[in-house]
Write a structure and sequence with these properties.
- With 561 residues, this protein is an alpha/beta fold.
- The chain has a domain of 206 residues: Leucine-rich repeat, LRR (right-handed beta-alpha superhelix), CATH 3.80.10.10.
- 17% of the residues lie in helices and 17% in strands.
- The protein is built from twelve helices and 30 strands.
- The chain has a ten-stranded mixed β-sheet.
- A hairpin with a 4-residue loop joins strand 21 and strand 22.
- It is elongated and about 110 Å long.
- The structure holds 2-acetamido-2-deoxy-beta-D-glucopyranose (11 copies).
- One 2-acetamido-2-deoxy-beta-D-glucopyranose (NAG) binds next to loops.
- InterPro entries: Leu-rich_rpt, LRR_dom_sf, LRR_TM_domain-containing.
- Keywords: Leucine-rich repeat, Membrane, Repeat, Signal, Transmembrane, Transmembrane helix.
- Pfam families: LRR_8 (PF13855).
């Protein structure tokens, strides 16, 4: 990027002597309002899509008066108060409203813009190094292109500030005392560059980073002197409607609660990123990778894409944590599933941690799961709640120990593995709503005597592991599930006429007849329940699947042949 800036400034400064003319530029407008000129030399117009062309030009395009052969006029300032804080603009030469007027007054004591500045049609303002406590009301600068307020005393940026300033292209608020920025500060206009480097921001909404539906070049939040909590107050969800994002962002030497893309993606999958976030680069220089669950989430992307949205310098391309991945290069982790599985985070909020049934809650994005491990406790029932999505802000738990707890909110989008191994559960009552997210329920080493009808809540489950059960029967609602999700192990049930339907269900659904899936009849030499169907053929046949199999099918077959 700095290379591109360099090219532009070279073009502008060397124009007249070397005869580089306007044919080096092509008119370009990101929004139909700004009239900018994009250098041909950058090859932006050979990009494959308009979004990418716009992104390329956003970084390099200049307004007309910055083109070769064009000039601007600086307006002078007269200080009108003894302390140097009040002023007015004066023009030594005659100015017409057609002049390209710049107001540059750096390293002074201004606290407000000169009293009469609204009567000038200012295009460029630079008040670096003054004492502005706020931006003030700048709504009269309707043609303003560049606003530089670096090194002042600003503390807050409101989303009213830039309303109506449709020509505004670039702002620089770096090295102020900004702690708060409204959400959607550039919502009304199409900004191309903004710099908030070296501030004290506590909370930052994604709408100020990945500005929806507007291509931008460069949002700089580097060297922020406070950890930043990312919010998503407008509930932006990439891929939900046709919203796209294409913004560069720089968070070098800053710490963030969550990667902005993770804040707006239900699931980071290549298809969504290709289509809805096709450009924009994320810079995170300053330290090596924390190879935790956040990076694991981004590892579902192509390696080049991972580097685009989370780029670091080459010498920072290794894991500095956790201990087991220390000093392994990010690429070696990327290609090794075993190592990627180790990229986990503990989730603290809403994890059941008290009493005789303590659990550990772990996010493991590589497998798209959250593991609730309550094994080896004295649980007699399931946890009533497990970590869930908070309703208020994306990360209401971002507190002092943000490195541990901050990841809860995106990991909970994943399936659940509930491990209740080695407990004292006798009644399996899966009535809690979270059971619809359970992929694996491990009940090994529990004296299960009863299973309630709510078992059908596990309609997303692949595995229900109950090898040590002491069941006499199954609830009727198991018919709604695939029989092969159950791992009955060696233990069977007493087979009778009353549960003959289980054998029919299993036969009809073509259940596996092998260990650990088979269900045996403990009262018939451990034969599978399917094998015993004949023995119970005197039971009420007409109400069963088997009737269809043994009577209807052969008849149909007979007439057909
Ligand atoms: C520019 O035009 C505005 C309104 O048309 C007028 O009020 C203002 O005085 C003009 N400024 C100069 C410097 O001529
Ligand atoms: C800013 O000033 C304009 C007049 O220049 C006025 O109409 C507007 O209400 C002011 N806005 C605020 C927020 O004070
Ligand atoms: C301006 O910011 C406030 C507070 O951050 C927010 O409530 C409001 O919705 C924002 N306005 C717009 C237009 O986004
Ligand atoms: C942010 O500012 C730093 C320091 O000035 C600079 O090196 C970096 O390129 C900027 N990032 C962007 C995205 O403009
Ligand atoms: C972005 O544009 C698309 C298509 O025009 C629209 O459906 C979507 O609501 C817009 N998103 C936002 C956040 O404005
Ligand atoms: C990891 O790398 C750093 C810097 O290269 C080195 O100082 C450190 O000893 C290494 N640690 C281990 C455990 O290899
Ligand atoms: C993945 O990493 C593990 C642990 O370092 C190692 O044992 C294994 O061989 C690696 N697998 C591959 C395919 O490199
Ligand atoms: C539970 O106990 C088993 C057997 O003693 C042990 O292998 C396992 O690591 C324990 N699990 C946990 C989470 O402590
Ligand atoms: C549950 O935990 C036990 C040990 O604590 C482990 O052996 C078993 O593999 C775990 N089950 C699942 C499904 O991960
Ligand atoms: C299962 O638990 C729910 C809520 O705790 C309760 O209403 C229901 O009666 C229980 N079902 C059985 C069969 O115990
Ligand atoms: C049936 O299986 C159980 C559990 O493995 C075993 O204890 C029992 O001896 C088996 N019965 C027969 C007759 O094989």
């Amino acid at each position: 990027m700095s290379f591109k800036y360099f090219v532009v400034s070279m073009l502008v400064s060397s124009c007249c002597t070397h005869g580089i003319g306007l044919d080096m530029f092509k008119a370009w407008s990101p929004d139909g309002i700004k009239n900018l000129f994009c250098p041909n030399r950058e090859d932006c117009f050979s990009e494959p899509t308009t979004i990418k062309t716009d992104h390329c030009c956003a970084c390099t395009a200049v307004p007309e008066w910055e083109l070769p052969h064009k000039t601007h006029q600086n307006i002078d300032v007269e200080i009108t108060s003894v302390d140097g804080s009040r002023s007015k603009l004066v023009s030594r030469q005659t100015v017409s409203n057609n002049s390209n007027m710049y107001f540059i007054y750096t390293h002074g004591k201004l606290k407000t813009f000169p009293e009469n500045s609204c009567s000038y049609n200012l295009l460029h303002i630079d008040v670096t190094g003054n004492l502005f406590p706020n931006v003030g009301n700048i709504s009269c600068f309707i043609d303003l292109d560049t606003l530089i307020m670096k090194n002042n005393k600003l503390t807050f940026i409101s989303n009213e500030t830039f309303k109506g300033l449709y020509k505004l292209r670039s702002v620089d608020f770096s090295y102020n005392l900004i702690t708060k920025i409204d959400c959607n500060v550039f919502g009304d206009i199409h900004i191309l560059k903004f710099n908030f480097e070296g501030n004290y921001i506590h909370k930052l909404d994604v709408t100020n980073i990945l500005i929806p539906n507007k291509t931008t070049c460069g949002g700089n939040y580097s060297k922020n002197k406070h950890p930043i909590e990312i919010t998503n107050l407008a509930n932006l969800v990439l891929g939900k409607d046709n919203t796209f994002v294409c913004s560069d962002y720089d968070f070098s030497y800053s710490s963030l609660s969550i990667h902005p893309l993770l804040a707006i993606c239900e699931m980071v999958v290549p298809q969504i990123i290709d289509k809805y976030a096709p450009c924009g680069e994320g810079k995170y220089n300053g330290m090596a990778f924390d190879c935790d669950c956040q990076i694991a989430e981004l590892m579902h992307l192509d390696f080049l894409e991972l580097n685009r949205v989370y780029s670091k310098r080459v010498q920072e391309s290794y894991c500095r944590s956790p201990g087991n991945l220390l000093n392994i290069s990010i690429y070696d982790v990327y290609i090794n599933q075993t190592l990627r599985d180790q990229m986990t985070c503990d989730i603290i909020d809403f994890c059941p941690m008290n009493g005789a049934c303590k659990c550990r809650c772990i996010s493991q994005p590589n497998r798209y799961v959250m593991i609730i491990d309550c094994s080896n406790q004295s649980c007699t029932d399931f946890p009533t709640i497990i970590p869930h999505k908070s309703d208020s802000s994306l990360l209401n738990n971002f507190k002092k120990n943000f490195e541990v707890s901050s990841i809860a909110d995106f990991s909970i989008k994943h399936d659940v593995i509930l491990n209740m191994t080695n407990n004292k559960i006798e009644q399996v009552n899966t009535s809690h709503p979270y059971f619809s997210r359970v992929r694996t329920l491990d009940l090994t080493a529990n004296p299960i005597k009863m299973m309630s009808e709510e078992i059908s809540n596990l309609n997303k489950a692949n595995d229900i592991i109950i090898p040590d059960h002491l069941l006499n029967n199954l609830p009727k609602s198991v018919e709604l599930l695939n029989p092969n999700v159950f791992h009955f192990g060696h233990n069977g049930i007493p087979c009778t006429c009353d549960n003959r339907w289980i054998g029919e269900w299993r036969l009809y659904k073509q259940a596996f007849k092998r260990y650990p899936y088979a269900l045996k009849c403990s009262n018939y030499d451990n034969k599978t329940i399917e094998e015993m169907l004949d023995v119970f053929s005197d039971c009420d046949v007409t109400s069963s699947y088997i009737w269809i199999f043994y009577i209807i099918f052969p008849i149909v077959f007979f007439f057909h042949s």
